[in-house]
Amino acid sequence: MDSIIVTGNGPLNGQIPIAGAKNACLTLMPATLLSEEPLTLTNAPRLSDIRTMTTLLRSLGAEVSTLQDGKVLAMASHGEINPVADYDIVRKMRASNLVLGPLLARLGHAVVSLPGGCAIGARPMDIHIDALTALGAEIELKEGYLHATTKGGLKGAVHEMRFASVGATENFLMAATLAKGTSVLKNAAREPEIVDLANCLRKMGAQIEGDGTSTIEIQGVDRLHGATHPVVTDRIELGTYMLAPAICGGEVECLGGRIELVGAFCEKLDAAGIDVEETARGLKVRRRGDRLRAVDVVTEPFPGFPTDLQAQMMALLCTAEGASVLEEKIFENRFMHAPELMRMGAKIEVHGGHAKVTGVNRLKGAPVMATDLRASVSLILAGLAAEGETIVNRVYHLDRGYERVEDKLRAVGAKIERISGQ
Ligand code: EPZ
Description:
The chain is an alpha/beta fold. It has helices spanning about 20-30, 50-60, 85-90, 100-105, 125-135, 165-175, 190-205, 235-250, 265-270, 310-315, 335-345, 375-385, 395-400, 405-410, and strands at about 5, 10-15, 40, 65, 70-75, 85, 110-115, 135-140, 145-150, 160, 180-185, 205-210, 215-220, 225-230, 250-255, 275-280, 280-285, 295-300, 325, 345-350, 355-360, 365-370, 390-395, 415-420. Strand 8 (about 135-140) and strand 9 form a beta hairpin. The longest helix has 14 residues, at about 235-250. Ligand EPZ binds near residues 163 and 167.
């Protein structure tokens, strides 16, 4: 397993290109199952999760070609479609459950393994099941697999979700495009990745309104045609790299960044003492003074503060002046970066869904363990400004969501290198 060694090396200056969004691409790819015609995605990120989704779609009978060094995914599912999403693939990545809605819409039946839990939580699928049942699916759990069938195909319905689940919104949205009649989804997730999926589905001929709000209306159509669609900029990668100059000093321009992707996050950066300037090419970030101020953070569904930036924000607040309280309201176990940051000298008290961070002057480098995707990158960020050397182990977590993080950070002056493991 690879490790990454990062050494505190002063201010960072330059430009970091932001890739296409992992969490948009992972829902756009299964949309190929909704049509027999080709769906091509451009601006795709080069990540191991995308390779996992590629393997899954191929196992279902879809053709997926990666072109232009992986930035273009040319897909088509015009042959025989296999309805079974195997546990062996699904257990590696929860987003595999996003083939459930498309398979039901295309075939009228599907057998999708439950993903099982992961480091940050149990990750149940009840909201997905309720949403697809509302569209006329009958879903039964047998030996760890969801067996979904429909008699006479999916039918439009009005459904209100108990929680604005991102994945359940995406499964409902994709399934409803081919259901008979009108569907209305209430308490829908509002993330930019939902809007990106709706934009792509509309290019394929779907009739969708209200995406980006809590109520989405879909008029079912008989069939969808092919399309070409650029994956939206990754707002979580964007927020992550905006924190690099915030933690280290200097000035970094994140190319492709847009304020509307990180609104709530920028409000917290401003309160902490960080300036964000919109430029023609992206977002330029620099610290205002020499010491940051403590801020409180509560993670919420979009447009609130994103849970996927909570760990990275904690790394920033470890050296801010004063005490910050971070409340994690989306996942039940998403503070695993805290004990690792404490190995670096951070002062953090975790009580259930709350973490209190009392700022210290400077962290000290140490060997630390990556536990999940966003926790991993928060340790890299902490190491950028820490005194001495930080070795982050198990960086395969990192490669799921960040393209060559060491290259992007080295390009702006970070002292960072990857050590290949056995
Ligand atoms: C998406 O996961 C993202 N993944 C996650 O990003 C992100 O953290 C999450 O949305 C919240 O924004 C992808 O888009 C591939 P949810 P998803 O359904 O769809 C509970 C990353 O780091 N829940 O909105 O799985 C669930 O357990 C990843 O890139 C149910 O109880 O998130 C969680 O506590 C991590 N029952 C909460 O809702 C359900 O049926 C939010 O889950 C579904 C979810």
